[in-house]
Amino acid sequence: QVQLVESGGGLVQPGGSLRLSCAASGSAFSTYAMGWYRQAPGKQREMVGIITSGYSTNYADSVKGRFTISRDNAKNTVYLQMNNLKPEDTAVYYCNAKRATPWGADMYWGQGIQVTVSS
User: Fold this and answer.
1) pLDDT tens for each residue of 62-112
2) CB 3.0–4.6 Å: which of 6, 33, 71, 88 could bond 113 by disulfide?
3) Where are the beta strands (DSSP E) in the chain?
4) How far apart are CA 45 and CA 41, in angstroms?
5) Number of C-beta neighbours around residue 52 at 10 A
């Protein structure tokens, strides 16, 4: 029911910035917690940042102070502003939407978008 489409990835030099966007379908966007996850080759998928329906945020320690997650409910969009990028940030980044229901959590994933940090 919810489709998530990421954009804004690409190749950037160390120290550079990128802003990822995730556009969501549906009319219940504001009720979902939204998150960004990433997976590097040979590694497990990890949480990068989460923003709840109440605008509370959580970040991985490795990105605190450099990345900012935000949401615009009027646009059905969540963003990840990435500053001072490092080579270790290279990964496929996935958008996630999650909402609790009486029968369990609804969870949706985007298709993923590549971010490469290299000189």
Assistant:
1) 999 999 999 999 999 999 999 999 999 999 999 999 999 899 999 999 999
2) 6
3) 4-7, 10-12, 18-24, 33-39, 46-51, 57-59, 67-72, 77-82, 91-101, 104-109, 113-117
4) 10
5) 14
